[in-house]
Amino acid sequence: MNITFHGAAQSVTGSCFLVEAHGCRFLIDCGMAQGGREADEHNQQAFAFDAAGLDFVVLTHAHIDHSGLLPKLVAQGFKGPIYVTLATKDLLEVLLKDSAHIQMMDAERAARRQREGKRREREPAVPLYSLAHVASTLEQVQAMPYRHSFKPHPAVTVCFQDAGHILGSAIVELWLADGHGGSRKLVASGDLGQPGRVILRDPTPIMDADLLLIESTYGDRQHRSTGDTLEELVDVVTRTVPHGNVVIPAFAVGRTQELLYHFLQLIQQQRLPPVEIFVDSPMAVAATDITLRHFSVFDEEARQLLGSVKRLKESPHIHFISDVEDSIKLNRIRSGAVIISASGMCDAGRVLHHLKNNLSRPECAVVICGFQAEGSLGRRLVDGARLVRLLGDEVEVRAGIHTLGGFSAHADQQALLDWAAAFTRPPQQTFVVHGEPQASRALAALLHERLHFSVQVPQPGQVFEF
């Protein structure tokens, strides 16, 4: 058996792992790299493997950094099934169509700027794939429930377990025939959620594995408590809205719904005034509807609060914006608004227009509440950039930039270690993936020192044979 790390090796995005065993070749994830020029170049490159020769794909969850190159895979000849959870199937249709649309708009903008003699070298001239490729991809998707074993190939058995990261996120258990009548078990954590968060269940403990792939997005740090994070959010919003706006770049799936949950609770508790909240993202609106259809996978607290969550769509203070004209009208609002808009790393989508209209105003605030990949606009804001390029123009950063790490949907260092400690014996080999080098190395060291795991931090493209 071989595993090749084609993505998310010493980086957070672009998850893609090729597994070859006993005449079977399949991928775990096929994600898009995100964050800057190198990510764009990576996405444009040809796959380092034969797409047509793959038997199937197993997808951990719907986020674009795990799913975003599936239509490109299909465009290059992959015709096999794509196995996902039930909720992931619903979300994929929304996310992949949005991804294709953004690429088309970016290519049109690049062509227009080229005609004007203003095009920058990194601006993509051709989309990675079309809506037709997305439609073909969705036809190949096969949904499976949690805790249900299935055989995508005679030599492979798969089971999805709840990862608690976003709606439909999965830990993947795979049993691969060893050629001697037995099997070896490979576990891919996908992205693990932080225990104790609202709405979703905690990540499922896994007891045994021969080989383990574990994420490390926050492998070198702890999150602030939810209580402290909410206090900071209340402070930022209360100080800002009398004179300006609060812009929150947020992932449309997961982060937006959690923020709305907290805003509704804070307003009901009178910890916040009844501020006007605008969710300006067609994808987030669709994802919220999907979220409300999948309460069977939520934790007990969330099910008990079903009535409150359903009031998200009915609250007079929460406005869901899909129409472009309604989105443009938000530019006229000078104060009193909280604008939640995708994308979460500020690299595409409507949030760019809201940043362009509010970043230069010192009376406004930008709240960063998720991981920002190296090279992304969000990362540059967090790192203190005073001048950024937005939609072709230079914009001075005068608004307050606030990072609220406690809203992360990823497990922090201690939560990752606690999840790994559930194994009854150390896996024969553990690979730390889906993290920047410092975070991956920090988690690898602790897994070795505290849990006695045999650990590797793979290089991009590295092959391991077992």
Low-confidence spans: none
Overall shape? globular
CATH top-level class of the largest domain: Alpha Beta
Our count of domains comes out at 2
What is the CATH third-level topology name of the largest domain? Metallo-beta-lactamase, Chain A
Distance between the termini: 5 Å
User: Average pLDDT, to the nearest integer?
Assistant: 89
The order of strands across the largest sheet is 6-5-4-3-2-1-22
The CATH architecture of the largest domain comes to 4-Layer Sandwich
| Oligomer classification | single chain
Structural class: alpha/beta
Total helices: the number is 15
How many E-type strands? Answer: 22
* Main beta-sheet annotation: 7 strands, mixed
- Specify the CATH homologous superfamily of the largest domain: Ribonuclease Z/Hydroxyacylglutathione hydrolase-like
**Which range best describes the helical content: under 10%, 10-25%, 25-40%, 40-55%, 55-70% or over 70%?**
25-40%
Report on this structure.
This protein has helices at residues 37-44, 64-67, 70-75, 86-115, 131-139, 226-240, 255-268, 282-293, 300-304, 306-310, 324-329, 351-358, 377-382, 413-420, 437-451; strands spanning 2-7, 16-21, 24-28, 56-58, 82-85, 141-144, 150-153, 156-162, 170-177, 183-188, 211-215, 246-249, 276-280, 318-321, 337-341, 365-368, 387-390, 393-396, 400-403, 429-433, 455-456, 463-465. By secondary structure, it is of the alpha/beta class. It folds into two domains: 2-220 and 409-465, 4-Layer Sandwich (Metallo-beta-lactamase, Chain A), CATH 3.60.15; 226-403, 3-Layer(aba) Sandwich (Rossmann fold), CATH 3.40.50. A seven-stranded mixed sheet has the order 6-5-4-3-2-1-22. The protein has a seven-stranded mixed sheet with strand order 7-8-9-10-11-20-21, covered by helices on one side. α4 packs antiparallel against α5, α4 runs antiparallel to α8 (282-293) and α14 (413-420) packs across α15. It starts with a strand and ends with a strand.
